[in-house]
Amino acid sequence: MSDASTHHADVAIIGAGPAGMAAASRLAEAGQVPVVFDLAPSPGGQIYRQLTAPQLGEDVMGRDYLRGRRLLERFERARIDYRPGSRVWWAKREGQGTTLGVLADRRSESWQVRRLIIASGAMERGWPFPGWQLPGVMQAGAGQILLKQGALIPDVPPVLAGTGPLLYLLAWQYLRAGCPPRLILDAAPRSRYATMLRRPLSTWHGRHYLLKGLGMLTTLRRAGVKVVHGIEGLRAEGNPHLQAVHYRRAGRWQSVDASMLLTHFGVVPEPQLSRGLGLPFDWHPSQQAFVPHREEASLAAAPGIWLTGDGAGIGGALNAEREGHLAALSILAAKGEPVENERTPLVQARRRELSARALLEALFRVPDGWLAAQPETTLVCRCEAVSLGELDAAMAQGAAGPGQLKAFTRCGMGPCQGRLCGESVTRLLAGHLGTTMNAAGYYQVRPPLHSITLGELADSAAPPAP
Amino acid sequence: MFKRLDNAAPAAMVTIWLEGQPHSVPATLSAAAAVLWLVGATGYRDHAAGGHRAPLCMMGVCHDCLITIDGQPNRQGCLVPVAEGMRLERQRRPA
């Protein structure tokens, strides 16, 4: 499909977080003018959100947030066709490149791009427990977004629950902001820390993360914040708003009054665009997530498509920046530029980072048996309000794949397009069929890759071919 | 539910209308963040299947922030920055 209303670009980058900004800046410094599509109104991604005009300083946000300024300034200086507020809602590999449908200002345009760098980042894992749909329950990432966007903090001490570095970072930031959490419920047992002794090399490579984490934990403890390790179950209760959080530890349920619960069960690659392009994914047992295939050296997933940053596997902001840089170098190398000296230190740093990640993954594993242990009224698909019991019944009636479960129950058919329930559905099927996550499979992702309204479709400058 | 920290950097303020009432809010907020700051999560949205909902992720994934913006229903409130004169209506069943 190519007509007068189709735009063309040699390089398009999707996402303006650390990976996208690094790729775009490096290409621009070599005289290229990449087009960058990003969902947000300003660059930075989730990690450096609002860093163009920070609402809070290092005293509350910590050093790692402000660190992004250097990259942000480089991105803002460079000559880039930067298009904020853009939703890439369909994508198709065609001939020598990719065609994209991009919605901005409520109009859709089609773009034909020769080289595509996907840097669309991560999302928080959907992790069902009774009451996770109640007002008053949010993901920890949402708490951080409100902090970055408007210096908003809870007006009563919240309960934090789950596992992962973000849980403690948010707790620390709330403490620094004068609102220490009432309670931290950590799903990882304390014995987990012995993992470090078994992985000395990873521990060494990850020492900066560990020291940072230890520092935050010490500060929280000194401030009197209570941490309960090894929680086995979680339940939120209240109507029309959260009133109490129940948690199980050592087989016994306990309760705490709360009007705000922030949960975190890790981050996973945001899959829509890569899956929509038909790129293959595999279950990564250590990351406990589906990650797309790519070639390790070039980060290419297919001819003309590079996958970078947390959307290609969780590696954190610094790793994302390096991967964006590497993808840019891969493109420049193909154009005949000498890049080897610049590449080598990036590859080495990336290898050390991935070693450190293996430790973080082991320390913050989510409990694999969690979903099967939830009561049958627990919502798995929030959008269509499909419960665990309904999914169990559909599987008992013979639904043997994610597509069939969707057809039987409407699970995954709502506006989030299965992003919050996809992993759960695969977990249920794998358990029911006694098979692997890969064999159980995942939803078939089709456009629209983002929800769009009929009005937006009607206003499209160039409606796509079906 | 949420309060703005006193030591926040000064932000430009815009006037938005929530169910016909004017409010001054920092221009850096999304529509969903503005609602959470002004009136909290209670009553944010009623789900078609029954029950109450409020934003979960604030980053464009969950769609529990759906809200009517300038007369257009089902907009993702967490992705739309507030703007001067913006009209917001929460999507609730009549009491």
Q: What is the alpha-carbon Rg of chain B in Å?
A: 13 Å
What is the fold named in CATH at topology level of the largest domain in chain A?
A: FAD/NAD(P)-binding domain
Distance between the termini of chain A: 11 Å
What share of the residues of chain A lie within helices? 25-40%
Number of domains of chain A: 3
Please tell me the overall pLDDT of chain B.
96
Report the top-level CATH class of chain B: Alpha Beta
Structural class assignment of chain B: mainly beta
CATH topology of chain B: Ubiquitin-like (UB roll)
Say what oligomer this is: heterodimer
Provide the helix percentage of chain B: under 10%
Going by CATH, the homologous superfamily of the largest domain in chain A would be FAD/NAD(P)-binding domain
Please count the helical segments of chain B. Answer: 1
Given the helix and strand composition of chain A, which structural class is it? alpha/beta
Describe the structure.
The complex is a heterodimer of chains A (466) and B (95). By secondary structure, chain A is α/β, with parallel strands linked by helices. Chain A folds into 3 domains: 6-123 and 268-336, FAD/NAD(P)-binding domain; 126-265, FAD/NAD(P)-binding domain (3-Layer(bba) Sandwich), CATH 3.50.50.60; 371-440, Arc Repressor Mutant, subunit A (Orthogonal Bundle), CATH 1.10.10.1100. Chain A has helices at 18-29, 58-61, 63-66, 69-77, 140-150, 165-176, 195-198, 200-205, 207-222, 272-276, 316-334, 340-363, 388-396, 402-409, 422-433, 437-440, 454-458; strands at 6-14, 35-37, 81-83, 87-94, 97-104, 107-118, 122-124, 137-139, 152-154, 159-163, 183-186, 226-229, 231-237, 244-249, 252-257, 261-265, 267-269, 281-284, 289-292, 300-302, 305-307, 379-381, 386-387. In chain A, the strands form 6 sheets. In chain A, strands 1, 2, 3, 4, 5, 6, 20 and 21 form an 8-stranded mixed beta sheet that branches. Chain A has a 5-stranded parallel beta sheet with strand order 8-16-10-11-12. In chain A, helix 1 (18-29) links the parallel strand 1 and strand 2 (35-37). In chain A, helix 11 (316-334) runs antiparallel to helix 12 (340-363). Chain A is globular. Chain A starts with 5 loop residues before the first strand and ends in an 8-residue tail after the last helix. In chain A, 53% of the residues are buried. Chain B has a single domain (13-89), classed as Beta-grasp domain (Ubiquitin-like (UB roll)), CATH 3.10.20. The model of chain B has no long low-confidence stretch (mean pLDDT 96). Chain B starts with a strand and ends in a 6-residue tail after the last strand. By secondary structure, chain B is mainly β. Chain B is globular and about 40 Å long. At the A-B interface, strand 8, helix 5 and strand 9 of A face strand 1, helix 1, strand 5 and strand 7 of B. Strand 9 (152-154) of chain A pairs antiparallel with strand 1 (2-4) of chain B, so a sheet runs across the interface.
